[in-house]
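Closing statement on the heme C sub-project.
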Amino acid sequence: MTPPDSAHKSTLPGEDPLRPHSFDGIQEYDKRLPNWWLLTFYATIVFWIGYWLYMQQSGLSVGDGKKIDEHMARVEAVKLAANAALDDPSLWKMSRNPVFTSAGKATFDTICASCHNVALTGGIGPNLVDATWIHGSKPTDLLKVVNEGVLVKGMPAWGPVLGTKKVSEAIAYVLSHHTPPAELSLSDK
Ligand code: HEC
């Protein structure tokens, strides 16, 4: 290793000063950071502040719990819809999911409410919120009645008219007014 060359330590006029250390005889200038570099650096800081404020206000914010709940309801809805079997537990699960119940409410209000009332309290058709069921209280019992109807009593068969999806949504909406069996450990609304 050669000792630092002291002759080069002096600063020539117009040149950047040399830093005092030397490694294996190599020395560094004490360079000023270039303007383009400083400008980029400050621009990132300004951008960060603006972006942070934007994210705090926009619906994209990660901390927005309601958005996440809605998203999870949709994820759950896709999973339930993929599970083709419309059995009692899956219909109860649909009844706790706003994706199904809001679609079901729309169907109910336009089609079913004329006989069962918007409040589901009955009219031409029976009350659907009390504890009395003519054709059974299981979700699949309701599914059968709505799909096949009770033609002699004036309840039309909705399966062929509305299709499985709309019928199951309407039933989810009816069930959302009832308490699911405890063993399913679904939250009551
Ligand atoms: C034209 C009138 C009418 C319309 C529209 C109608 N229903 Fe009914 N619904 C009835 C009648 C009447 C009964 C009672 C049948 C009986 O007594 O066996 C009934 C029975 C039912 C039952 C069984 C109730 C029980 O106690 O077992 C369910 C569930 C039901 N309807 C849901 C629906 C849904 C969901 C829709 C909309 C897709 C709908 N209904 C549309 C007239 C109607």
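The beta strands are 18-23, 26-29. With this model delivered, the sub-project is considered complete and its resources will be redirected to Aim 3.
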